[in-house]
Amino acid sequence: MKIFQKVKEKIKKLIPAGFTFKRKKKTQSAKAAGARPDKEMPGFQETVVADAKFSHPEPARPARFIQEELPYQYDQDKIVLQVRDPRWVHTYWELRSQTLESLKSRLGDDFHRARRVLRVYDVTNIIFNGSNANSFFDIQVNDFANSWYIDTGKPGCSFCVDLGLMLPDGRFITIVRSNVVQTPLEGPSWITDEEWMIPDDLFARLYGMGFGLGRSSPVGKAWQERIKQGLFASGISSSPVRRAVKERSFWMKVDCELIVYGATEPSAAVTVQGKPVNLRPDGTFTLRFWLPDGKQHIPVKAVSGDKLEERTITPIVNRETK
Amino acid sequence: MFKGYLCLVLHGHLPFVRHPEFEDFLEEDWLYEAITETYVPLISVFEGLVNDGIDFRLTMTLSPTLISMLGDPLLQERYLKHINKSIELAAKEMERTAWQPGFRDLARMYFNKFSHSRDTFLKYDRNLNFAFKKFQDLGKLEIITCGATHGFFPLMDVCRASVRAQVKVAVNHYESVFGRKPNGIWLPECGFHPGHDEILKEAGIRYFFTDSHGVLHGSPRPKYGIFAPVYCKGSGVACFGRDLESSKQVWSSIEGYPGDYNYREFYRDIGFDLEYDYIKPYIHPDGVRINTGIKYYRITGAGNNKEPYVENWAREKAAAHAGNFMFNRQKQASYLNDLMGKPPIIVSPYDAELFGHWWYEGPMWLDFLFRKIACDQDEIRLITPSEYLLENPRNQVITPSLSSWGYKGYSEMWLQGSNDWIYRHLHMASQRMSELVKIFPHADGLRKRALNQALRELLLAQSSDWGFILGTGTHTSYAIRRTKEHILRFTRLYEEIKSNSIDEGWLADIEYKDNIFSQIDYRVHQ
Fold this sequence. Notes:
The structure holds 2 protein chains of 2 kinds.
Chain A: H1 2-14, H2 44-52, E1 78-83, E2 88-94, H3 97-107, H4 109-113, E3 115-122, E4 135-140, E5 147-151, E6 158-166, E7 172-177, E8 181-182, E9 196-197, H5 200-208, H6 221-228, E10 257-263, E11 269-272, E12 275-277, E13 284-290, E14 294-297, E15 300-303, E16 310-313, E17 316-319
Antiparallel strand pairs in A: 1-2, 2-5, 3-4, 3-6, 6-7, 6-8, 10-13, 11-12, 11-15, 14-17, 15-16
Chain B: E1 4-12, H1 29-51, E2 58-62, H2 64-70, H3 73-96, H4 101-123, H5 128-137, E3 141-146, H6 160-178, E4 184-186, H7 196-202, E5 207-210, H8 212-216, E6 230-232, E7 238-241, H9 244-251, H10 270-273, H11 276-279, H12 311-340, E8 345-351, H13 362-375, E9 380-382, H14 385-391, E10 395-398, H15 422-439, H16 445-461, H17 464-472, H18 476-498, H19 504-513
Parallel strand pairs in B: 1-2, 1-8, 1-9, 2-3, 3-4, 4-5, 5-7, 6-10
Antiparallel strand pairs in B: 6-7
């Protein structure tokens, strides 16, 4: 569709480096969706518009902009869990070298044979004590990873993650435990109990004003007319924008400009095609025109400051485009 | 006959970009462009409506960073310089296009627009906040606040002290500018995480907005969907859900108005089109071609062939589209009224910068819409959330769902391979800020200055704009630089405060550079 093409072009111009909505490669499953931004996805237009606020190309920054790097980590044992969407959570972590050293001395050779593992607990509706999870699964990570995207596949559930070691005999040793997060629902809630409220201060106001503020619901004639007009079809709005067929996108543009310049006494008055022109202090002048096809007569007239003398020179320019 | 309410919301925000250390800084143009193309045109629409006695209601966010920049003397001075250059270029263009009447008229249109922009800017003493305040005081505009630096709250949930600081700094700042507390807040990126409503309540905020699924997927299920607000369970703060249908009509370049072929083409700017030597004085001093704001073409069609813009055609389209929008809302309100048995509220939020900057005719469309709603019908009524709640105080109580209006509706725009590295540092800095507040609950003198500056640096690092830019991949070096810069400054302050070795000269230097929120109190971060 033509307009789809346009959006694509806009995106291309906006985002020369490629709109990489890709998730990290090291995801737990290969379910990752396609990397192309989806125009029908919620938030797509918001992204395009917001990005247009930052629509300049990047200038090359001079050397004085080189800055210090941020630390790789902060010398603590920590794992943090965050929700990305109803199914995916993200975690990052860091471990102090002392922590690893003490594990090494405690476990001996087992430490080197152990695998580093993220244990993902489903802790929905419980107070997690380390052993009462509804269920869990493990993800093996390499020793250099420090963050991970996890596909829980479970909207509306709570999770907690341990970073730990899986020993050859199957024992799991927790090194650090994350915070608990809850994924949002992916659809409407099944809970339909209703609770209603009028905030105290609003009620007080309402009370004071004698309950006279609410507008009554206008059900009746006008509404029945709407039904007759068949406005209860699936879509309520009509779209006024045309759709058309796709065009090829190759293009070229050539323009032609004319520069008229000259000099005279600084005190003289100069007109070009009858219109007065400002002289620079040294008596020179320059005019620049977008030149259309056809013949242009450009009479340039100078009148001396004392108005006793005048000169006219008329360049004639012919532009023809083939 | 009255059928329902329409609540239009414009979210105005730009990240804090102010570089006194450089003569000319490209990214400051984001503000200058928005002033000329969005803020002044909107103010002119409001002025026109008030002058003509047309009643209207509009809810508008002015983010604390935007308010700070609009009120900053250095940026005001630079804007004046910028607009003067634009006027000079438009004047040259009128001359250059003398033999092309269509283009000459457009050059004159820009000349008038730029001159008008300068006049308006000067009329309000260079501070457009005064203009917005004026329409708020007249009861036409309800200005709401936002996160102090537009931090994305769902990804700050592990350090709620920072969410609290974002909200409280914003509320205090709002009060210092507008002389009253804000009733509502636009959560940055419309990002809601259950529980943050408690923080809003603490700050005295009565309502916020979520995207449609924030309310629709809340629990228990909302009886009226997004067509009535809900109160958050526990806090009682009201939450208004966004209407998708009216959103699409304006946002979408597939089905929406801004894609109409008669409207102005955003991507054909003379900064890129004209011969290099001629345009050089008006682009970036480094010689990089940039937008000048003078764009001569209409969208024309899907291909790259563009025809000249015709002002009258575009104006007629804007009027027709305003009529179409109103008609559809009337139908929608009438339909919903029947379904619900009470008047619905249709909440239509848009980026303010969509109007004028991205969609050139947007302010004109809004003007037509307000006039038509006031004069041509009696089925829908414009309303602000505050007024709505006064008239309709009884609402359902639910817990709205985690949501945002970003790509895919949750946190992925700000949490993906290109930007997830920032949270390790942001969260650490939050944790350290809380630690400092705990150690120094009553600091004064130099230490207090350093603590206040530390909070400024932390807030500036948290702007969702940096994560967003890293996510789209368009302007990454600046976003990386800003993220690192504020974290590095914060970290050095943290270390110097803890070791009682504050370098006053350096502190003064960063206070001068990152001068936002002069009244900040570091103790809000807890």
